[in-house]
Design a protein that fits this description.
Elements lengths: L21 E10 L2 E11 L4 E5 L6 H9 L6 E6 L4 H4 L3 E4 L13 H7 L2 H4 L7 H13 L15 H14 L4 E4 L8 H13 L6 E5 L3 H5 L3 E5 L3 E5 L1 H4 L2 H8 L4 E2 L12 E2 L10
Parallel strand pairs: 3-7, 3-8, 5-6, 6-7
Antiparallel strand pairs: 1-2, 1-4, 8-9, 10-11
The structure holds adenosine-5'-triphosphate (ATP).
Length: 279
């Protein structure tokens, strides 16, 4: 029996020769006067899942803010889909790390998800059928439809995080940025969000998210390793090397298990250090 070669995979936006999601040259980012990301070059593929890793304070959130267009470069250049991040912001959904629930503002889950449509409807415009359908689809995907009428301050942390991710994907977007979307969540919420991260690129959306989990990063299409600058950027195999991880996390921060399990693809982090090398 002859086996025929598998047909080529459906090309995604990030195929060879495709325009990149983001390009940075000599990019420098400051938070106030603090230099959070020193001059770095970076090319991120479009239509892929990109994981940004690095110790606490290494500049991961800062890079996401720059991609979202909320933090302009202090030096160098950064483009998203060939234009300035601020110009592309209308089509960039950004789910931030911690969103404080405004006290005394009785927002329901549906209200919060509906806000995801404001970039296209405007704050005072009427919701059209397409807007309502997008809100419903986002709530279904994040499994918060049953919670639609509940107030945000009545929800668990995981339920609230799912509502905020639903707000992000309710927006018309081709770029989705998420800051530590699964940190501290229970298995069900983490799985729901993790599933979405891997599903969005299939729809042509470029996803960039930050994580502290090296195994999660190993499952992404592209990894960016930060330590006050971009230490390495490429495929998981190119980036998750002992040499690169030691540069970012410090010597002695890694260990390999004495009896490696079948799934242990990357070294373990022993005692995470922060971006300045402090333990
Ligand atoms: N608003 C701010 N004003 C001044 N400095 C800031 C501000 N936000 C962050 N920084 C500093 O910028 C650096 C990078 O912070 P950033 O939040 O990007 O790190 P991170 O890698 O996302 O960290 P974590 O893993 O802890 O979330 C840190 O030294 C941090 O203290």
């Amino acid at each position: 029996m002859t086996s025929r070669p598998a047909p080529p995979a459906e090309p995604r936006t990030g195929g060879p020769g495709a325009a990149p999601l983001a390009e940075a040259r000599g990019l420098e980012l400051r938070r106030g006067t603090h230099l959070a990301v020193a001059a770095s070059d970076l090319t991120l593929p479009a239509g892929r899942l990109v994981a940004v890793i690095g110790p606490n304070g290494s500049g991961k959130s800062t890079l996401l803010h720059a991609l979202a267009g909320t933090l302009p470069p202090s030096a160098g250049t950064l483009t998203v889909r060939g234009e300035s991040p601020a110009r592309h912001a209308r089509r960039t959904a950004f789910v931030m790390q911690t969103v404080e629930v405004p006290r005394g503002v009785p927002l329901t889950v549906r209200d919060v998800v509906t806000m995801g449509r404001y970039p296209s409807t405007g704050w005072f415009r009427r919701m059209r059928a397409a807007d309502r359908a997008a809100v419903q689809a986002a709530m279904d995907r994040m499994d918060v439809t049953d919670l639609a009428g509940r107030h945000l301050d009545e929800l668990s942390g995981g339920q609230r995080q799912r509502a905020y991710v639903a707000q992000g994907i309710a927006q018309e977007h081709d770029v989705l940025l998420l800051d530590e979307p699964v940190t501290g969540l229970d298995l069900v919420s983490a799985r729901t969000i993790d599933h979405l991260l891997h599903e969005e690129p299939e729809r042509g959306v470029s996803v960039v998210y930050t994580t502290h989990d090296l195994d999660e990063a190993a499952a992404a299409d592209h990894v960016v390793l930060m330590a006050g600058r971009v230490v390495a950027s490429g495929t998981p195999a190119e980036v998750l090397t002992e040499a690169h991880l030691e540069t970012a996390y410090g010597r002695g921060a890694l260990h390999r298990p004495a009896t490696p399990s079948a799934g242990a693809a990357v070294p373990f982090l022993d005692d995470p250090v922060d971006g300045a090398g402090r333990r």
